[in-house]
Amino acid sequence: MAFKSDANRWGVGARTLHWIMALLIIGAGIVGLYMSDLPNSPQKIRIYALHKSVGLTVLALLLLRFAWRLADRRPDEVPMPPLQAMAARVVHLLLYALMLLLPLSGWVYNSASGYPLQWFGLFNLPNLTGGADPALKDVAHEFHEYGFWLLVIALVAHAGAALKHHIIDRDDTLVRMLPLLRRRAAVPTSVEPAPVAAAPTAAATPAEPVKENTTP
Ligand code: HEM
Ligand code: HEM
After folding, report:
1. Hey, whose CA ends up nearest to atom 29 of ligand 2?
2. Domain residues of the chain, as ranges?
3. 62 lines ligand 1 (CB under 6 A)
4. Would you say the CB of residue 144 lies under 6 angstroms from ligand 1?
5. What Å distances lie between residue 164 and 75, 158, 189, CA to CA?
6. What separation in Å is there between the alpha carbon of 53 and the centre of ligand 1?
7. Is the beta carbon of 111 within 6 A of some atom in ligand 2?
8. Distance from residue 216's CA to the centre of ligand 2 (Å)
9. Dihedral of CA 12/177/76/98: which sign?
10. Would the CB of 52 count as within 6 Å of ligand 1?
11. Which pLDDT tens digits describe the chain residue by residue (216 residues)?
12. Among residues of the chain, what percentage have pLDDT more than 90?
């Protein structure tokens, strides 16, 4: 399995980053929704710290993903109507923007709240706002929350489109992004009449049987 992408399929590098990040983002979202309503306790502080560390990991992996995307190529586009291709590009762009802005707004929110920030308790990260800032804190919080729901909408469109390609169009869009699965064999786009076997010609000798056309 090639590490880099080729014309037909995403490489191991791009696929690994895509799926690890998808899991971390969905995990951060679920933990984020769950933790906000918890009663104050040391457990709540631990869960907040976990949420922030996972979110910061998403940010770090995104920088790696941008670098990898520049070094790697994108597979050729699966044939589809131009409007669909444009919609896919817009949703991908939105997903990239939110993968950057959600962790950043969380970091700004945390900084403007005046809280320290650590990555899995291993090292400290700088305060982005130079101390507590109640007005900025509110803006960052709104952005973090509404940005998340925009991500959910974009993700539903994105995953829905991938499944539509797989189940209805029966093309390679999803398969070439999944680990392990092999690409589909070419699927006929229309029902064509079976090829007519060539009539034996005078050139064919009786000792040479006429071969059947076994291609599909
Ligand atoms: C992919 C990354 C992230 C996702 C998907 C995400 C998602 C969420 C969600 C869904 C909530 C609940 C919103 C609400 O109902 O108020 C939340 C809350 C929060 N997030 Fe994130 N987050 C991410 C990254 C971060 C980062 C990197 C930080 C900080 C460094 C952070 C700090 C917070 C804080 C402090 C809250 C609590 C807000 C409150 O108490 O109301 N998040 N996040
Ligand atoms: C938070 C979750 C996810 C995010 C942020 C995300 C983001 C992205 C982005 C930005 C791309 C474009 C890659 C590029 O062109 O550079 C992409 C490609 C892709 N994603 Fe996701 N994705 C997520 C989850 C999913 C899920 C759940 C599925 C399937 C059910 C999926 C299926 C695909 C496929 C098939 C491609 C390749 C599209 C193509 O070859 O044109 N993704 N994803």
Report:
1. 159
2. 12-177
3. no
4. yes
5. 19, 10, 16
6. 11
7. no
8. 33
9. negative
10. yes
11. 699 999 999 999 999 999 999 999 999 999 999 999 999 999 999 999 999 999 999 999 999 999 999 999 999 999 999 999 999 999 999 999 999 999 999 999 999 999 999 999 999 999 999 999 999 999 999 999 999 999 999 999 999 999 999 999 999 999 999 986 666 654 444 434 444 444 443 333 333 333 333 333
12. 81
CATH architecture group of domain 12-177: Up-down Bundle (1.20)
- Centroid of ligand 2 to alpha carbon of 23 (angstroms): 12
Write the pLDDT tens digit of every residue in 102-127: 999 999 999 999 999 999 999 999 99
Look up residue 33 and give its two tokens.
């929704």
pTM above 0.85, yes or no: yes
Q: What integer pLDDT is reported at residue 191 of this predicted model?
A: 39
Determine if ligand 2 sits within 6 Å of the CB of residue 92: yes
- Residue with the smallest CA separation from ligand 1 atom 19 is 32
